[in-house]
Design a protein that fits this description.
The protein is of the alpha+beta class. It contains four helices and 14 strands.
Length: about 300
């Protein structure tokens, strides 16, 4: 069997006869080859580790950047949620005041929570302590947002209910006598008095307001003109029915009426002019309010201007 050997030939370029041959042992050759392979493998490993480290550094940097962006988004959402909470609080306070003003029952504070509340369990607290703070903040924000949506839905429902009740009240109040029928001075109030013509102490069922002829007379509530006529005692008279006859207002001693029977009028609308017709001692308006067929004091239905609701 032929054994292969490795020889190293040393030659001098200036002397071709001076070449020498050196025999290299086989184990040295194998050692050199093995060392070369190990070196290549080591270099490849170093390159791999260096590239992995570089990729890891880039990945960490990217994750940090995404984490910063996520924290910024969470902070923005937290500010938004806080702002919406404050808005709902203002709306709740406004509705509570409106309900109080209109005599409606207030919404219970526990109902306002809309199913939101309760303390976290020990397991929840332990689990939260093991999580990343950003994740905990994000989960807290999610829960707050869900609670906010439930509160908003409840608020929409209660506000709609309040709005409908207020509309009904406004509709009724607009048909209920509540303002002065004319400008002037009161010359005779509701109640017993000595009659200016007979001298007898008789019941005066209305309110006398004196002023000049042609002073405007206004409807004190929404209603339908029931009668426009001339009576012996009342002179030119306008009667207006309100709330399907629950209330009837009388405007007597007019110089001239400005409405016709069957006409619908709004509160504050011109219905005639002050005069001295009928049994009267001077220009004035005799104003009466009847409730379910019975005359009552008109002053009970004249509210201050800041109490009138239109």
């Amino acid at each position: 069997m032929i054994k292969h050997r490795w020889n190293v030939v040393l030659a001098d370029s200036r002397n071709s006869k001076g070449a020498r041959s050196v025999r290299i042992p086989r184990f040295i050759t194998m050692f050199c080859i093995l060392a070369a392979l190990v070196g290549v493998a080591g270099f490849a490993r170093v390159v791999y580790l260096a590239s992995s480290y570089g990729i890891a550094v880039l990945g960490v940097s990217e994750q940090r950047r995404e984490n910063r962006n996520l924290r910024q988004k969470i902070e923005n959402l937290e500010r938004f949620v806080q702002g919406e909470k404050e808005t709902i609080t203002r709306i709740v306070n406004y509705e509570d005041n409106a309900r109080l003003k209109y005599g409606m029952e207030a919404i219970d504070s526990e109902v306002r929570l809309a199913g939101v509340g309760g303390l976290p369990s020990q397991e929840d607290m332990l689990f939260a302590s093991m999580l990343d703070p950003v994740i905990v903040r994000a989960e807290s924000l999610r829960l707050q947002t869900a609670a906010l949506l439930r509160q908003a839905e409840l608020q929409e429902s209660t506000f709609l209910q309040t709005s409908e009740n207020v509309k009904r009240m406004h509709s009724r109040w607009s048909k209920r006598p509540s303002i002065w029928p004319a400008h002037g001075r009161i010359t005779s109030e509701y109640g017993f008095r000595f009659h200016p013509f007979t001298g007898l102490r008789l019941m005066h069922e209305g309110l006398d307001i004196a002023n000049e002829v042609w002073t405007p007379i206004y409807a004190t509530a929404d209603g339908q003109v029931q009668n426009v006529s001339n009576w012996t005692h009342f002179g030119n008279l306008v009667k207006i029915s309100h709330l399907n006859g629950e209330y009837i207002t009388y405007y007597a001693h007019l110089h001239k009426a400005a409405v016709t029977p069957g006409q619908f009028v709004k509160r504050g609308e011109l219905i005639g002019y002050m005069g001295n017709s009928g049994r009267s001692t001077g220009p004035h308006l005799h104003y009466e309010v009847h409730h379910k067929g019975r005359p009552i004091n008109p002053m009970a239905f004249i509210l201050p201007a800041d109490h009138i609701v239109d």
